[in-house]
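sry for the spam today, last one i promise. struct tokens for design, 466 residues
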């Protein structure tokens, strides 16, 4: 496979070549666990999990790390509001993260490190920067000296002066340059703190990702991903502090997803501009949410509205129905194997080709819908399909699902349901052949109560959802 990725470090689409053949070291910035995560954050979680699944489907051994930021100003403020400790707050919203992420079909990362579990590693990294002259200590705080690192601005593609004029930064006379950022914060009363060579304190936000990435994946990794709002300052600072410490490249491919806009006009007023993934999945199926997120190229901005999600729901229903028709189609070894009854040979190849081109999930989903049209034609009106057709179509669906995770929410359930319905149909056939019409009718009624309708055809009994 030749995968190309748009690398924000070079602003070019580049062929992906991992450091070690067959292995991918992949870090994705995770949530700050002070609340339920926003629907906007569901996008990178879903999209980059899908990229991980694709790399795995292509035979790579992927070590996928997504962190939890469990100590920062927001954590401290929220914990105080709720009258609980910062670590209790973190436990609560890490559990909530997994509940929502699992429901949205986001696979669990290989490692989900918490910043507070990496304090010694963070202190070690800050110490290296102080020792080699890239950081300085002022009254128990430690700052990174941006002027000491000539590459500062290489990810954001701006000079120090441009960055400075674009950023709203309070002048702090203790800093050598206004863009110098904090690596370690001296203790304030009532805040959680840890012992360090610079007195008690806690890590700044940026340093945790460099420390955890380097410790879990090595000093240079293959891919680092996140939302485009993280490019500056978070990722710029990650590059600076890691590379100033090691003298090696920190990340070979930096990839960022586009913004997700909440269409306020069309969203309900009460929700305003803040919609958590949890609220979203109360209103829309996880399947539709995934389809919406993966239905656009990851770098394009997308607009989340009731209308766009309604469209995703109906697209999801089309996929489900087609799959159900396929699973239930009568199989006949003598079935017509010409025209629409031939499964498109190149479907899998074209699906992969879209993903290999900068992970174009929109293009891949386009191929899925072409296949769905042909499956619908092949199974229309209860037509029988050849066993070979069924096998190839099902294996296409399974492959697609392994990467896009679209049917995880109904896939197994659907097959189990199909099996159960088939068993009941067989039982009904038997009852009818024994003229036990009471039993046969009760089976029909039971299925009807579950919105399943039976149709008796010359080829046997078929079923569908009402
Ligand atoms: Zn990051
Ligand atoms: Zn990060």
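last one done:
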């Amino acid at each position: 496979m030749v995968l190309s990725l748009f690398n924000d470090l070079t602003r070019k689409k580049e062929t992906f070549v991992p450091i070690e053949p067959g292995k991918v070291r992949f870090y994705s910035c995770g949530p700050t666990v002070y609340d339920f995560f926003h629907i906007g954050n569901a996008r990178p979680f879903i999209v980059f999990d899908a990229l991980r699944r694709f790399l795995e489907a292509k035979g790579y051994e992927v070590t996928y790390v997504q962190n939890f930021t469990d100590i920062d100003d927001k954590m401290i403020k929220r914990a105080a509001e709720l009258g609980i400790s910062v670590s209790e707050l973190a436990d609560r919203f890490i559990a909530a993260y997994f509940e929502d992420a699992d429901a949205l079909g986001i696979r669990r990362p290989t490692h989900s490190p918490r910043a507070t579990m990496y304090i010694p590693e963070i202190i070690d990294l800050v110490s290296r920067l102080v020792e080699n002259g890239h950081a300085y200590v002022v009254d128990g705080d430690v700052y990174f000296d941006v002027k000491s690192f000539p590459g500062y601005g290489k990810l954001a593609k701006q000079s120090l002066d441009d960055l400075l004029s674009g950023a709203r930064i309070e002048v702090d006379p203790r800093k050598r340059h206004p863009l110098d950022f904090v690596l370690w914060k001296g203790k304030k009363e009532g805040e959680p703190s840890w012992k360090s060579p610079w007195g008690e304190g806690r890590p700044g936000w940026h340093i945790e990702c460099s420390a955890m990435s380097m410790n879990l994946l090595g000093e240079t990794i293959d891919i680092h991903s996140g939302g485009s709002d993280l490019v500056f300052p978070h990722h710029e600072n990650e590059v600076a502090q890691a590379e100033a410490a090691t003298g090696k490249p920190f990340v070979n491919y930096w990839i960022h997803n586009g913004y997700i806009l909440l269409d306020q006009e069309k969203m309900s007023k009460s929700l305003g501009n803040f919609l958590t993934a949890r609220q979203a999945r109360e209103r829309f199926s996880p399947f539709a949410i995934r389809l919406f997120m993966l239905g656009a190229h990851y770098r394009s901005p997308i607009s989340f509205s009731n209308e766009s999600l309604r469209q995703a729901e109906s697209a999801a229903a089309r996929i489900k129905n087609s799959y159900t028709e396929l699973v239930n189609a009568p199989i006949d070894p003598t079935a017509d194997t010409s025209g629409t009854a031939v499964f498109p040979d190149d479907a899998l190849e074209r699906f992969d080709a879209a993903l290999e081109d900068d992970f174009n999930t929109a293009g891949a989903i386009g191929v899925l819908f072409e296949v769905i049209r042909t499956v619908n034609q092949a199974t229309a009106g209860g037509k029988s399909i050849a066993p070979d057709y069924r096998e190839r179509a099902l294996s296409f669906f399974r492959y697609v699902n392994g990467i896009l995770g679209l049917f995880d929410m109904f896939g197994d359930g659907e097959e189990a349901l199909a099996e159960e319905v088939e068993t009941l149909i067989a039982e009904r056939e038997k009852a009818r052949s024994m003229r036990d019409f009471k039993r046969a009718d009760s089976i029909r009624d039971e299925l009807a109560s579950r919105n399943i309708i039976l149709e008796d055809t010359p080829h046997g009994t078929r079923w569908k959802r009402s």
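Residues 29, 209, 234 surround zinc ion (ligand 2) (CB under 6 Å). ok im logging off now
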